[in-house]
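Worked example (supplementary).
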Amino acid sequence: MIESPARTRPRRWIGEAVPRKEDPALLTGAGRFIDDLDPFPHTHHAAILRSPHAHARILSIDSTRAMALEGVKAVLTGARVAEISKPFHAGITEPVHFYPIAVDKVRYVGEPVAVVVAKDRYIAEDALELIDVEYERLAPVVEIDRALAADSLPLHENVGSNVVHERSFTYGEVDAAFAAAEEVVEATFRFPKYASTPIETYGVIAQYQRGTNTYAIHANFQGPFVLHTLLASALCVPGNRLRILVPPDIGGSFGIKALLYPYMGLIALASKESGVPVKWIEDRLEHLCASSSLTDRLTHVQAAVLRDGTILALRLDHVDNVGAYVRAPEPACLYRMHGTSTGAYRIPALAIHNRLVTTNKLPTGLNRGYGGQEHYFALERTIALIAKRLHLDRLDVVRRNLVRADEFPYHAPAGSVLDSGDYHTAFDEALRLAGYQDLLATRDRARAQGRSAGIGLACVVEPSGSSMGYITIALPLEQRKKSLPKSGAAEAVTIALDPSGAITVRLGTAPQGQGHQTVTAQIVAEELGVTLESIEVVAEVDTQTSPWTIASGTYSSRFAPIAAVAVQQAARKVAMKLRTIAAQQCDVPLDDIDLADGLAIPRGDRSKAIPLKRLAGLAHWNPLALPSGMEPGVYETSYYSVPILEAPDDLDRVNSSAVYGFVVDICLIEVDRETGKIEIQRYVSVHDTGRMLNPLLAEGQIRGGFAHGLGGALMEEMVYDEQGALLSGTFVDYLCPTAAEIPPLTIGHVDTPSPFSPLGAKGIGEGNSMSVPVTIANAVADALGIDDITLPLTPRRVWEMVQR
Amino acid sequence: MKPARFDYYLPATLEEALATLSELGSDGKVLAGGQSLVPMLNMRIAQPAALIDINGLVDLDAITCEHGALRVGAMVRQATLERSGPALGQVPLLAQALPLVGHWQTRNRGTLCGSLAHADPSAELPLLLSVLNGSVEVHSSRGVRTVAARDLFVSFFTTSLEADELIVAAYLPIAPARRRYAFNEFAQRHGDFALVSVACAVEFDEQGMLAHLTLALGGAGEVPLVVEAADALGRLLDRELIAALAERASTACDPPSDHHASAAFRRQLVRTLTGRMLTALVPQEEAAAT
Amino acid sequence: MIGEGSIELEDAAEHVYQALLDPELLQRTIPGCRNFEDQGERRYAALMEAGVGPIKGAFKAKFAVTDVRPPEGYTLQVEGQGTPGSVFGRVTVSLVSSAPQRTQLRYAYDINVSGKIAMVGQRMLDAAAKMVAAQFFKRLREELAAR
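After joint prediction of all chains, the assembly is encoded as:
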């Protein structure tokens, strides 16, 4: 009888509350951010002249006086940019031309009009004051309603209308459902324009290398690296002549640094024109007027319902305001939630009418929650309205319609495949944590005393790991057929062991503070049986030397379901190689080798174990001793894409995300009717994050999303006046919540590991950005008995609502 | 966000500072804590030809008691004042008002006198000086004069100081034994400029009647506004009087409109805050009786 | 910014009206006005410096007197551009005879500000508009009194 060999289990790291590897450097001021870098000698500095007008024709630009200033190297204007580059592509059919600088016309306040390159930033800013621009003001188009009006002046004359995209979709028997409905609940919702405001602003250091016609651009860019392809095309160079380098540290992004790419192009062109490397660090004024934001949206909802609250069908009419241009990846904001339009509910029929409008406002792009907060504001307000209009208990309406645990994976009508979940249990857990009966009692007691208290709740499906194909749903089928189908969502990771056995992992994710280095180390440590400290995780991306994919980057909460899997796969390749070498050295079958404690251990016998250091040394120093056919060195790259993310089908269905988390929020608020101030007395958020990779990081993500959602609910808005002037141009007027404004948050979990992701993990960073605005809106609606709720719920707005 | 070119002076003595001010006139701007001025320089909405940095004038950072008032030198940081036990004991309103001024970080640099010279009608410290009926000691190479709060603030960001004058100290009257104070503001976030702020000083006599009342408003007009309240003296601070005073405050002011708050909303806030502040000051036995 | 106000003038409406059309007087009453240039047809160009406290901006301004209704009033169109941003809008002036040799001048302004000054100075704009208007009409009164 053969004894099965004793085995050595490696220490488990995945799922542990490991403190962040990143923090010692960051907390001691030793981070290396874009502004800390000085990669090129003789670097000059750029300052950007920006439009004071919302909508105007540029009659002339005279930079003579600026050029005469000592220290000024070059002044670049739109006319020249149009000569030496091409407009950026976006995923719609209408020809909305977008350059990184105004050409002929300015279309929003803050739009670049000229770039000065000078010896230092002071001189560059002095020179801005010496550029004379003559404008002819044009009628501004500021609000969505105006953009929809037939007589609004088109921002883009060649398009001829401010409606730049329109598509309709039908899934299931919508008309029949409405015919069968006992009630139709109908409402219109407006969602405001706001952003994310990372502490670190945009930064670019670009060098045009004349000898090779190559651009090298250092930028705190977060991906997606599909924008590399787009940028190369705009700069008229093949991809291998555009080298993007992302610094080791990025000081937050929350999506907004995806839209850095126009500035990367602009500063690269400024380098080409001036003949010197050019550095530009965006200041806060520039950031608040001219970086990016989410869309403001007008949504009209019709819900076909039965009297018991069963929802038979939804008709959604969306008008998404992308601002002055359609910048890739727009119109993604409108389409990210498309497949998941029915949210957490079993709604069999769905019709969607989508329009995209241009207005004289800052163009839009990725932002934490991207499309989710707009979508759920309408959907979850509708759920509240259904309960109210039908005189039903809101809890019953939710429970009646939630997808049941036995229905997963659930195929939503517009194509999303909800991988796993137990929504009813999560819902009950949220009620339990909130002490729902106590909340009701507290609310009613307050009301009995003449105060205005309200309870809000929302259920949100949180997609993570966006498909690279979903945006193509914006194109009609026949258009889509003309190009190659787009599917999947890939990430690439490389792991190398040097001759001393030191482990380096190279990511393509360009993290911005999420803690990727930490989780990566956890996964690699577990797979290779080594300590966390022995692993160096390099987060710098260099498109010329790092492995990357078009999907690379950090957005759509894609690290946990996608990049982490690529890390695991690369680690397994390395483990396989090391074990194979060890098996040969120990003369045992491969299966008998375990990796633990930095050793390859045959049959659990530590006396015969070989240190990994030695195996790596062998692979580097003595390739002839390797098993036959094995390549020398230890350098493994893994590309992982999500199998379930298929291209849109002929029925316009698309599974837009790899996996789907779930969030239930419940809150109790009280409104001071005299001052309009909202006090959040209790806030509970229960999450399904699949398999949690690191509870500390998960909690950080939830708290961060909560703060962002709170900003959207209560204070953040990009305010433009009726002439399109931006009024919220500093942090005195664009208000973000600070620690003092953030109430206690109770977090719960009902986690159901995803069957579609090898690690089972789901993203978690965006759920509360999506859920908090509508949860608080529902609570205020409940407190005041008012249906028409507009965000942000500033004291002024709430007071005015009370007056009505 | 880089300032335009300016000349920089770092005088070593007060005399030198005053001489420089007198020479530069309106081209010179005094730099103390810089918490308002430096952002304006960086945004280039202020482009003075010269800065006169008074941070080198070590004699100006003293807190002393003189003539029944707390004398706070021009270089006394708000944070120093906030941590000074004796100062808070003598002018208890400081303990209420200072934590509302910006943030810890800004108070570490910002000065009381700098805030008074900046004369932002929404700022807490001009309101504090007004409700305490304090004054400032103003020096120039021509001499020294004392300017009372009511004569100091002229309009938005504008004082009655001449271009060659420097506030060398502020005088905050020491609280009489029976006087009580309150400071209340409404801001959207902690540390923001208040949408409106209200402050008062009250004293009740042995019978519980009002023996003193100063009521002042911030953010509700060009300058901190002291509301006429002499007719309230000798009366009981009851619900009716409080309502009347709150109403008077809200109609006496002329608040601005912006996207954070309309003038009407600011008036409403003045009414509510005044009412709540006065209600909290009603002596406990009176409150129990009414 | 929208605002209005009125001043009482010790003069007949016709005189006030004539004075208001006098470019010389406009030049002297517009706050911080330099390099005033009469471009004919009641259009003027000037450099204008305006501000509140330490916050100052210089604008290249164009003025046009339109909608003339002698002696009841007119509209002054204003358009200015400078490094802090742009300013445009109009001031409507109406004259009402309150007694012989006494005229009430009412003004209403609707001024838009755009660019950096609107972005950073939001909290002060209302105040700035009020102050500039008040300065303008105060000087006007002084000018008329001096005539």
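Two points are worth noting when inspecting this output. Chain B has a mean pLDDT of 95. The domain at 58-173 of chain B is CATH 3.30.465.10 (Uridine Diphospho-n-acetylenolpyruvylglucosamine Reductase; domain 3).
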